[in-house]
Design brief:
- This protein is mainly β.
- It is 2% helix and 42% strand.
- The protein has three helices and 73 strands.
- Strands 1, 4, 8, 10, 11, 12 and 14 form a seven-stranded mixed β-sheet that branches. Strands 2, 6, 7, 9, 13 and 15 form a six-stranded antiparallel β-sheet that branches. Strands 38, 41, 42, 44, 45 and 46 form a six-stranded mixed β-sheet that branches.
- A hairpin with a 3-residue loop joins strand 66 and strand 67.
- Residues 1-20, 71-76 and 173-187 have low confidence and may be disordered.
């Protein structure tokens, strides 16, 4: 039942935000949340307390929320929701509604590092989409946003929030997959999200809030819900610096303990490092003050180093320069702003503005500071000794200044360039395919690209040498003074000085949270996730059984509607330039549609691989049987007497049963087949038995229900279990125990006979309204029409002690000393003998539609039963309706015969699903007046094949007066009609044509 909880509970003001209600995120730290600590019952939501560090608001206001458990209700307008499938502790945080609303919830992350600001976050989570009677999402949107706070004092509806499009769902029109069902029981559809939030500067004791806002428009009927789960937030921090090459002024003497660096630059004899906290560290030659960072300099986003001067770009787009100011190289042009990149030459400087123009200053004796007229659309700049270069947004390069060595003669046709660098007198260009083009003098081989060099991601040049950083984190250098330290790897950035090189080292990824093995059922949605740390955003590659999965390159790998073929071992390789780490293996086990548990001494719970299309199940002493939709049978488990060896060619089966050591099948022709142990002749079907509509199998006997409501029983009879009570009729269902038999009558009463120890054959007085029965070894169970259960008989293990409050039951079965009930929500309840063998049912077993219990094992069918798809021919119908002696006689069973003399030939009886011996002709579709037409509409019986249906009409019924009627129906539905016109009398007859 749906409730508008906004009318049941008052709204609360957002609680005060305390300094402690936050999540600390130190340098290199991470935060994960699986939301499994959410309450599983209705409680008031308290900001910062219900979930430490989490806050909520409705429609952008400071309104408190209430958390609801999914099994307690399915609609909670303007409230938070604690999603979970029934029977599992796995939860998700979200919102559910059947009305228009906007609800937000946010986590408060605080920078607890003493030195480093938060500069980037990696965020991964899963959207879980739940629904009730509503498959179309009404203009539903979910957005992830973030906001920086120095000290948060308002509610989460205030301030300026920045969206993260890569982690948002906009204008969803339909829920992916699945059918409508209860929020409490319907598995979620899942979408994994991974996003990087970069360009941050969250200083000490400052906070960044991540907020999810869920918005929907009103739609009549149904509810929907969206939650997030398996959240991971990883802080990315830069690493350390290594240096090599010329060290005449200490330019490669990296300060001890330097860490938290995010950018590096190299001059002729000095080096610069920009830290995550926005401060600079310098070392090397500094006679002209170029190592003396201006006091109070902060908010730096990029650095550059020249001959004897240094530059910094601030986050407000302004530039600061210091050091030797000959030629005015450190005199930044007044009013310069909107700068996005900087570069320094020997004695000149350049700035790239956001509008794609270049502003130079300083030495200009070779035109190095004179920008070509009309140059625009620039996206990167580089400065050599006395020349300059620019990379345009179209991938072409422009160069100017000194050209003594052809350094400004850009190679003809050069395009597809993504980065540039300049040395003393040479230039480098990195192309989009990871290869290089270099021009200028080649005195030291600085322009000779090493053969086969590829996979380059960054370049640097200075002096008379060139450097390239590869995607695997290694460095290649050539030209003058280029010996790269042996074993250097994990490099994330490079810089080249006059004769020395700097490399920024990253931290190899480490796996914080390993992917978890999962045991799921066929059709479920599965997400495998990994959480990894490291100094740089990693890449991911998931593998199944050691083989790469194409396209599985995110922190989460989602499999929609898993199938048995998805079973396997899954790992993920996490890589950044500093290295690769492979996760532990997570085993995914996919079961279904048949799930079995309990004793397995004879492999009775080892379901055959690939079993599918199951229509029904049966469980015997130590064997199991499945009926498939195509009418064939599969059996497994103990078969010492052949009970699990299905007879060759058996087909057309409509029902199955399993005894202690034998199996039984009912065929579509109304005959019975049995196999297995036969010491009591329980598999010797009585000669001529036909017209059977249901079967049951006990310890050593077999029962058959005939279409006339009578019962046939054969097999062991030492306790009278096969002696049917005299006059028993009107039976609709059967069950059999070890030594007793049970029948359900059409009036809802029960009759039992055979062994009566423990009162198992003594039906409780007044028992009525029964719709199903089951029999264990020494006890009996009955299901009533109100969904409750009654049990009687031997109870030493509690098999007849029905759980208190058990209701909503739709099916029952009984094992040797235990009982099983299937509820309307697909849940399975087991009680009685339980020595860790047959129960309880697996946790989280979803959508069960059928159950069967054996001696000490249980079977469950997950998902809908497969429909019986095999066809019924006239020949098979003959065999089911007539005795073996009648079938060969065409005057009795032939298509033109009428053995019950009701005026309907056998072919007509077959065509309309009638009993050829009952004489009930009124079951034939009847013509009637429909407005001004005279006609008939009917649907042919399912699975009948080989017939053509027609109709004719006449006003006189004389020979030759019958006229054909047009069938205007479709599929298996037929409609025949004609206008009555002026006819005072009309007649119609149905016509069936057989093969």
């Amino acid at each position: 039942m749906f409730h508008n909880l906004a009318t049941l509970f008052p709204l609360l003001a957002l609680s005060a935000i305390t300094a402690t209600a936050q999540v600390a995120l130190p340098a290199g730290g991470f935060y994960t949340a699986d939301f499994n600590t959410l309450p599983s019952a209705s409680v008031w939501w308290t900001d910062g307390t219900t979930l430490p560090g989490w806050y909520a608001g409705t429609n952008g206001t400071a309104v408190g929320s209430r958390i609801m458990v999914s099994s307690a209700g399915e609609s909670a307008s303007d409230y938070l929701y604690s999603f979970a499938a029934t029977g599992t502790p796995e939860r998700a945080l979200g919102a559910v509604s059947s009305t228009t609303n906007t609800l937000s919830f946010a986590v408060r992350l605080a920078n607890s590092s003493s030195t480093m600001p938060i500069t980037s976050l990696s965020v991964g989570f899963a959207y879980e989409i739940w629904r009730k009677d509503l498959l179309t999402a009404p203009n539903t949107s979910v957005t992830l946003t973030y906001q920086k706070f120095a000290a948060h004092t308002g509610n989460i509806g205030t301030g300026s929030w920045t969206p993260v499009p890569a982690a948002s769902l906009a204008n969803m029109s339909a829920f992916p997959g699945g059918a409508s069902g209860g929020i409490a029981s319907n598995p979620p559809s899942t979408q994994t999200m991974n996003a990087e939030i970069t360009g941050l500067s969250i200083g000490l004791n400052e906070e960044i809030w991540l907020r999810w806002t869920i918005t929907r428009a009103a739609t009549a009927g149904g509810s929907w819900g969206i939650g997030i789960d398996d959240l991971s937030v990883v802080r990315r921090d830069a690493g350390t610096v290594t240096a090599w090459g010329g060290n005449t002024a200490g330019q490669t003497n990296v300060p001890v303990g330097l860490s938290g660096v995010r950018s590096i630059a190299a001059g002729i004899y000095h080096s610069l490092a920009l830290k995550n906290d926005g401060t600079l560290v310098t070392w090397g030659y500094g006679m002209y003050g170029h190592l003396a960072v201006p006091s109070g300099l902060s908010g730096v986003t990029a650095i550059a180093a020249g001959y004897d001067h240094s530059m910094a770009l601030k986050n407000d787009g302004t530039v600061v320069a210091w050091g030797d100011n000959s030629y005015g190289r450190t005199t930044v042009p007044a009013g310069l702003s909107g700068v996005t990149a900087i570069a320094t030459g020997e004695a000149h400087s350049m700035a790239l503005k956001s509008d794609g123009t270049v502003v130079p200053w300083g030495r200009d004796d070779y035109g190095q500071a004179t920008v070509p007229v009309g140059l625009s659309g620039v996206k990167a700049i580089a400065a050599g000794n006395i020349h300059s270069a620019a990379l345009k947004s179209d991938g072409t390069v422009v160069a100017w200044g000194n050209n003594d060595y052809d350094q400004t003669n850009v190679p003809a046709g050069l395009s597809g360039v993504t980065a540039i660098a300049a040395g003393y007198y040479h230039n480098m260009a990195l192309k989009s395919d990871g290869t290089l083009v270099i021009w200028g003098p080649n005195w030291y081989g600085q322009t000779t690209v090493p053969a086969g060099l590829s996979g380059v991601t960054a370049i640097a040049a200075n002096g008379n040498y060139s450097v390239a950083l590869k995607s695997d984190g290694t460095v290649v250098a050539w030209g003058d003074n280029v010996t790269v330290p042996a074993g250097l790897s994990g490099v994330t950035a490079i810089a080249a000085g006059g004769a020395h090189t700097l490399a920024l080292l990253g931290t190899a990824p480490a796996i914080i949270t390993q992917p978890v093995s999962q045991y799921v059922f066929i059709g479920a949605n599965v997400t495998l996730t990994v959480v990894a740390s490291g100094s740089q955003i990693p890449t991911y590659q998931w593998k199944k059984d050691t083989v790469d999965i194409p396209g599985a390159t995110g922190a989460g790998y989602h499999i929609a509607s898993v199938q048995p073929s998805d079973t396997g071992s899954y790992t993920v390789a996490v890589t950044n330039p500093a290295g690769t780490v492979t996760s532990d293996a997570a085993t995914l086990t996919v079961n279904g549609p048949v799930v079995a548990w309990g004793g397995n001494g004879f492999d009775q719970t080892t379901v055959p691989a690939g079993l599918s299309g199951v229509a029904a199940l049966a469980a015997g002493g130590s064997h199991s049987v499945a009926l498939k939709g195509d009418g064939t049978v599969v059996a497994w488990g103990a078969s010492w007497a052949g009970q699990a060896t299905v007879p060759a060619g058996l087909s057309g089966v409509t029902a199955i049963a399993a005894g202690s050591n034998h199996s039984v099948a009912l065929k579509s022709d109304g005959t019975v087949a049995a196999w297995g142990y036969n010491n009591y002749r329980q598999t010797t079907v009585p000669a001529g038995l036909s017209g059977v509509t249901a079967i049951a199998a006990g310890g050593d006997c077999t029962l058959a229900l005939k279409s006339n409501g009578t019962v046939a029983v054969w097999g062991r009879n030492d306790y009278g279990q096969t002696t049917v009570p005299g006059g028993l009729s009107g039976v609709t269902a059967l069950a059999a125990g070890a030594y007793h038999s049970v029948a359900l009558k059409s009036d809802g009463t029960v009759v039992a006979w055979g062994y009566n120890g423990y009162g198992i054959a003594t039906v409780p007085a007044g028992l009525s309204g029964v719709t199903a029965i089951a029999a264990g070894a020494l006890h009996t169970v009955a299901l009533k029409s109100n969904g409750t259960v009654v049990a009687w008989g031997e109870n030493s293990t509690g098999g007849t002690t029905v759980p208190t409050g058990l209701s909503g039951v739709t099916a029952i079965t009984a094992g040797s000393s235990y009982s099983v009930a299937l509820k309307s929500d697909g849940a399975v309840v087991v009680w009685g003998y339980n020595d860790q063998i047959q129960g309880p049912a697996p946790v989280g077993l979803p959508g069960v539609t059928a159950i069967a219990a054996g001696d000490n094992h249980t079977l469950a069918l997950v998902g809908p039963a497969a429909p019986l798809t095999f066809t019924l021919t006239f020949a098979s119908w003959q065999a089911s309706e007539f005795t073996p002696t009648e079938v060969p006689d065409p005057d009795i069973s032939g298509p033109d015969a009428d053995p019950d003399m009701d005026g309907l030939k056998n072919i007509i009886e077959f065509a309309f699903g009638l009993n050829p011996k009952s004489g009930v002709s009124l079951q034939v579709p009847q013509a009637q007046r429909i407005g001004v037409d005279f006609g008939v509409t009917f649907t042919e019986p399912a699975r009948i094949t080989g017939l053509t249906y027609g109709a004719e009409w006449s006003t006189t019924m004389t020979a030759g007066s019958w006229l054909s009627m047009t069938d205007t129906g479709s599929g298996g539905t037929h409609t025949f009609s004609v206008p009555t016109s002026s006819h005072s009398e009309m007649f119609m007859r149905l016509k069936v044509t057989g093969p």
